[in-house]
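Tokens for chain A. Residues wanted.
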């Protein structure tokens, strides 16, 4: 069962669920998929019965954490797309801003995001949210590639997004050192531009500095 047993209706119940989910995120981050509901209840300071009142097992917790994570990611990405549309940003700047936003929301020194990616149940709700966000990114990037006359704009944009998503959830998201992370982000952006069939001109390259 991937869904919560029930959705909290009262403010007090919502607060309890938030505490449980925050504890779950912490325990999954440090212990990975080996985390147990008993450990999560202990970290949250609630009884195991309180956990089971809302979540039948740890996979239901992972499902809810994944939904919340995707909602945050979607908001960050939509903010980037809105700014780009308002300012008519060049595709180079858009790619860099999207890269930084996706890396930022997946930044974690521990195992949480890897556990979510590997073990959160792929419910229709989860897949729909991920697919809708990916579609908005691909459409925005493809539109700019089309304006530049790049061949296969949709295919290139989709390939670039899938590559970026994988890297953000991989080692890139676990780099703590700011200088190393910045160097890796710049390398990822350069790789994205190559996939998109672009080579930054000296003017465009200013956006990468």
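Reply:
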């Amino acid at each position: 069962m991937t869904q919560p047993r029930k959705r909290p209706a009262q403010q007090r119940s919502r607060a309890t669920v938030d505490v449980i989910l925050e504890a779950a995120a912490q325990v999954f981050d440090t212990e990975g998929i080996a985390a147990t509901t008993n450990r999560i209840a202990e970290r949250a300071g609630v009884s195991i019965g309180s956990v089971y009142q809302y979540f039948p097992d740890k996979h239901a917790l992972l499902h809810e954490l994944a939904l919340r994570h995707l909602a945050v990611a979607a908001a960050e990405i939509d903010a980037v797309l809105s700014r780009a549309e308002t300012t008519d940003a060049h595709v180079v700047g858009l790619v860099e801003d999207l890269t930084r936003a996706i890396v930022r929301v997946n930044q974690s020194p521990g195992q949480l995001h890897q556990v979510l990616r590997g073990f959160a149940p792929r419910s229709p709700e989860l897949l729909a949210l991920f697919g809708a966000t990916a579609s908005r990114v691909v459409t925005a990037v493809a539109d700019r590639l089309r304006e530049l006359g790049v061949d296969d704009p949709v295919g290139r944009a989709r390939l670039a997004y899938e590559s970026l998503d994988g890297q953000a959830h991989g080692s890139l998201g676990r780099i703590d050192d700011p200088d190393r992370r910045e160097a890796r982000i710049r390398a990822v952006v350069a790789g994205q531009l190559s996939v998109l069939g672009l080579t930054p001109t000296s003017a465009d390259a200013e956006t990468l500095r």
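Residues 109 and 176 are 7 Å apart (CA to CA). The first helix runs from residue 11 to 31.
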